Amino acid sequence: MGKLDGKVAVITGGTSGMALAGAKLFVDEGAYVFISGRRKDALDEAVELIGRNVTGVQADSADLDDLDRLFETVKQEKGAIDVLWASAGVGQQGGLGEITEEQFDAAFSLNARGTLFTVQKALPLFNDGGSIFMTGSNASLRGYPNWSVYAASKAVLPAFARVWVAELRERKIRVNVLTPGQVASPMMEEVLDAEMKAQFESVIPRREMGRPEEIASVALFLASDDSSYVNGIELVVDGGTTVI
Predict the structure, then answer these.
(1) CA–CA separation, 83 vs 60, rounded Å?
(2) Three-state secondary-structure class, residue 159
């Protein structure tokens, strides 16, 4: 018996890295999963990798029309949602004095605005007692030079969660933030050169980045009844980076 038997889960940004690992694990644990992503080729590859009990919807979580189409697909195919993992996000370096309007707008449009409207548009389909969680970043907890915009765009998520817990308590819908540290993912490969990767790994106690599967297992905890008494928290999964 799986921990998510009979559940319907939606994972945005589910075409790579930890969200894709989570989607695969959720299916293995009995869920039917909807994943979204901006690139059709990556989406098709992810659906093929997961192999069963999955629907891919091409959608940009910063585009409200795309979000409407995502949740209309969920409504038509399954009718309801039990788990929402709002994981779509973007990050780009920019030191103070060099930050552009485009960098700021891209980060806040997807990481903050997109996450808010993902949750809001999912709510009409949500079963009472369900679980919502969002992907944060330990960049918002530690002062990494050149990452202020990304850090700030992720720092709003715990504030969202605290308020939404109060607003959704009558429906017994839990809201949490899953905050990973440095994880070996395609996004990291895009933004980190070898020197920066080594610098990041030097501050992780085990001197090694996390693996997507390690984050996926924590996502399963938040999605399942194992975390039934966990609500309104920021669960930091960074190998101890922010505590030393």
Answers:
(1) 19
(2) helix
